[in-house]
Amino acid sequence: MTPMRKPFVAGNWKMNKTIEEARSLVFSMSTKLREISAVEKVLCPPATALLAVSAMLEGTDIGLGAQNMHWEEKGAFTGELSPVMVKELCSYVILGHSERRQYFGETDETVNRRVRAAQKFDLTPIVCVGETLAEYESYRTSEVVARQIKFGLADFSPALAPGIVVAYEPVWAIGTGKASTAENANGVVSTVIRPALSALFGEQTARAIRVLYGGSVTAGNAAEYFTQPEIDGALVGGASLKVDEFVAITQSAGRP
Fold this sequence. Notes:
TIM Barrel, eight-stranded parallel sheet
C-alpha cells in the first residue's frame, strides 16, 4: 500500500437487515468505526434501509453506499434505483458485483453504463471484478479480469479516475469460506488489474486507484491481505454484519 492511497473498507450487507435491524447494527458499530480515522469506511445496507442509516451517519466520517443502481435517471424500470435517487442519500455505489452478473444478467456493457452514470452524478463507484471457479481452474483469471476492467471502465474520465475504487472478488471465494491467498490476490492486482488500469488511464493514475480484495474476508485473515503492497482494503460481505468482526477488519486496514 502506498502513502497516496488511503485504506478503504466497505461493508456490503447484501439482502440482509430490516430497517430496525439496520439501525441496531449501525448503533452498535458506529462509535468504534469513528475512532478509526486512518481508514475510509463505507456501509452499504439494502435500499430500504438507506434513509434510516443515512440519518444515523450524518455528521460522521462513515460513508453510505448503495448496492447497485440503474444508469437511467428515471423511467419505466420497475424495481430499480436511479442515480438521482442514490445521490440523494449516498456518496458511493457498488457496481458489477458477481451476484448481479450471475443472477441478474449484468454484463461488462451494462456495468459500464452504470459506472458512467456514477461519474455523471459524482458518485464513487466501487467496481467489482473477478473470475468464476471454472475460469480460475482453466487459467483464465488474467483474461477475464483484464476484460472486465477494460470494458467496465471504458470512457470514464481520466481526470476523475483516481476516485474509482476497484474490488477484486474471485467469485469462487465469495461466501464460500475459500478465500484466495493474500499472495495470489496481490499478484492479480499487480500483474492484471494495475496494468489494465494503466492501459486506460496511464500508469500514474492507475497507481492512485485503490484496489480492494473481497471474498470471505474475516477478522482472522484480513491482516494478511492488508500487508500486501497492492491491496488497499476490503469489500466485506458476511463479516460486515457482525460488529466485532467488521470493526476488527477496519482496524487492521488502518495499521501501518
